[in-house]
Amino acid sequence: MERRKFIIGAGALGAGISTAIGTGAFTSVEAERSFSVATAGDAEAYLRMTAADSPNAQYVDEQSDTLSVTLDSLNENAVTTVDDLFLLQNEGTQAISVYLTDSSDAVTFEADGSSVEGVDGAVRLGVGESVTVDVEVDTTDASGSLLDSVTVMAKSQVFAAGDDGVVTVGPSGSGVDYNTIQAGVDAAAQQAASAVLVETGTYEEQVTVDYDGLTVRAAQNGSPVVSSPDSATQTVEIAGDDITTEGLTIENEVGDHGIFLADDVSGVSIVENTIQNVGTGDGASGNQQGLAGDGGQEGISIVGNEFTSISSSIGENGYTAKAIWLSANPNSNVNPIQDVTIRGNSITDVTSEVAAYGIQLQSDISNVEIDGNIIEGVAGDPDNEVNDRSDWAAAVNLSKGSQAAGPRDISIVDNYLDAISATADDPYPGTSVVVEGEAEARSIDVNRNDIEALGGIVNKTSYGVVDATNNWWGASNGPSGFKENETATSVDSAGSATANGDGVRVLDWNNDGTAEVNFDNFAAEPFYSKTHTVAADSSADFQSVQAAVDAAQPTDTIELAPQEFNGSIDVPVDDLSIKGAGEGETIIDTSADRDYGVSVSGTNFTLSNLTVIGPDGPESSGYGVKISDSPTRALSNV
What we know:
The protein contains two helices and 60 strands. It is mainly beta. A hairpin with a 2-residue loop joins strand 9 and strand 10 (114-115). It is globular and about 80 Å long.
């Protein structure tokens, strides 16, 4: 999924600057491209990002609290390079290493002609030193999402095998120091080492990392998998301060947690890991969480990870599945949780026969930033008969748990938020955000998100109005009402708005005519764009081109398989791109139709890499592609 527009806080930057980078199209031949930039790492407080001193500074808009970059166009089927775009500067008191990480082969970040991506491309910056970053975008073989997000890693040290203070772990016979991760961690503590580098392999063990300041990460080009033995509740436990895990794939098919944060740890960074297959094995029973912490954590960064395949099944009291769960229960004698960043993560396929949550924050937790995450495929089942009070599916849930204290000072910004229950009807539709219990609604901001779940945003508290302004609600005319009232009114000191649009719902929980959610000034178009696939078999999202068009939103892309599709197509959607697999490979055959092949009434339409066979009957209009008073971006390779 591709971020269409982006404004996001970049973390604790030395100059207090937050960052947004968006891309458009250089020659107006391609739909707008976008990606986001954030920061992470133990030295991010020393890092400043600003426009470079170059002619390309025209693409950079520096405001009081944001740095936004807009590139006006990207050529399709070409390589576009923008030199001297933005600058990374060390404003701290010690040397740091910086590098960029992203998931795209089409986008490359460089400095002085060399890549600055990944640990191997790290640039060492002394105090006051800076590096200017260029960007190269190759669309010659790009399809779907070009790039969702990029993270600037700022670290006090980047480790490599052979460095002093580095312990290596790998399979037997691979020339490493140890063959298990736990042995490597224990040796690092004994040797006062700084890092454990893990080579490619599958490590069936439970790992406890309790040495302060230790980094445990994948070795260069490594892809290690840590899989919990059946008896382990968690696969990886973080039990020390200032610990980093990076680049690991972590599984726990039978136990409860992928990663568990011990009480009162601080300064922990969970960066670019994959947490998957939690609770998916035979014999799994309980509340399954990809990452869990139940009290006292402070200064936690959860950045750029992938959470997928988190599952729970029905137990005696009903169990839940959660990708990220943080809870500070005051009756359990734990300290509050505070200062947490959850940024740039992908959360998919979180399922439960009872309730499922992408992110759940409970009880005494404050000052949390949830930004730039994509949360979808979160599915609960309201049809079970175990515990209908918990029959929910929510992308984000803020609640008190079983105690009096509730979450407060929570920022939910620039996310894609979707969830679905087994049925979409009253009383338990999937929701994007649920605020309930003792959560302090008046201190919760939900802005610039795509609110995709049918249940929209729900405020079930009596603690003020949730600020949910400037969100996309699934329609340009805003959200619709729910419950007995046909419409729900948002009321705050500035006035009111009525939920009478065609979008997803804003829930009037108390059925009193007000939603306790300020949804005014809603966005007229989505912030994220999707890619829909079309093929004759069930492997694709849709089996007909028209069905995909009907489901599409502005800025989406439709990708057609290399096969023949029959029937004419109406395209009323603005900023839509339909791409085939190549001329003569993807064929839209409308020869049996009377009037036209493809009729376009939406603006800024792109059709590329396919063949259209227009109507050829004696009474046909003869139009292969018909543009109705609407400018088109491009017809390319058609």
